[in-house]
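JOB MANIFEST
job_type = single_chain_structure
chain_count = 1
residues = 433
[input]
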Amino acid sequence: MSTKTALRAATAIALIAGGAAQAETITIATVNNGDMIRMQGYTDQFTAATGIEVEWVTLEENVLRQRVTTDITTKGGQFDIMTIGMYETPIWGANGWLVALDDMSAEYDVDDILPAMAGGLSHEGTLYAAPFYGESSMIMYRTDLMEKAGMDMPDSPTWEFIREAAAAMTDRDNEINGICLRGKAGWGEGGAFITAMSNSFGAQWFDMDWRATFDQEPWLNTLTFFKGMMDESGPAGYATNGFNENLSLFQQGKCGMWIDATVAASFVTNPNDSTVADSVGFALAPNTGLGKNSNWLWAWALAVPAGTQKEAEAKQFIEWATSKDYIELVAAAEGWANVPPGARTSLYENPEYQKVPFAQMTLDSILSADPTNSTVNESPYVGIQFAAIPEFAGIATEVSQEFSAAYAGQQTVEEALAKAQALTNDAMEAAGY
């Protein structure tokens, strides 16, 4: 990193800090994704400028959600900053469980946050979490294997094309799976993927009377297609694979295609980590011709729980970690392809970032995702890979467990859907819907 850039970043941090009166320690709960782990490597620069020490609690995605939910609902006070997303933020903000981020500094430029991200992290127009990175989902594929199969990836392919291409690219003798997708239980793991996929098949979680729809044909079509394709062309044990497991498989050259978070693009194209970095292409998440692609919308964001005793210090860290200066800090040290994507308008206006091969497809995917109109038929909820109601996380975790059991061959797709229908309706009736 140049001396000039380092000085500017340190100066910006100092201005944000306003001078900490004494050394404090804040505790941050975060997910074990690559961008969040990368952030931890720069934390000493924040500490040097502010005197604020940082302790990290880094957790697998499902465990993180459980821990922070328990902590905030019981007012446990374990964390000064929580890594949460678009599902939790509006609900927790409405409940008064989060500190409003309505007093960020002028230098921070809150208006630069992409509207899709700011909207999803707000309640009644007030921002309650700042996006560290934003994402949709898209297809990442091996251009060499696609060429070898004699096929060309469209910019916006159908699921039928994807299944055909996956079969053509599968080479069991050389440990190459045509496609790697999430099957892992958890509402934000395999549950998120299959929900986004179901939107493109014409399915939805609830009808306009808040009744479950797992007994309807679109859900049967979705799960039957998913399981059939994955049994044909997916890796062994796909029922327990989530984001990180599939990332590892793709980087090792064991996947022809992977449909997942756009944020993964920097990791699969990084030659330091990926054996296939020079042969990765990108396309929009698939559709079935019904007018909806199967991409989601999400942000991993930093929020301050209302019970913290270190609100000022927590906000200082959030301003640093989600600022334009942090993006430049990473760009100077590791290149523009490795900065946290999807959060700020200015990043996509930057000529240097526009040269990154996946930048435009990421933005196109984010802009094409509409949480207020995510399903083919009218639905009563907001959200693409989730329904933004407090009951959803618990219900969807159980539903995803039934689906994963079907993927693993422990029950039929029909049995999984029947159980999903019953448990969802029971829970919704108990909640008063």
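[summary]
The chain has two domains: 3-135+297-354, 138-296+375-430.
Residues 96 and 116 are 23 Å apart (CA to CA).
exit_status = 0
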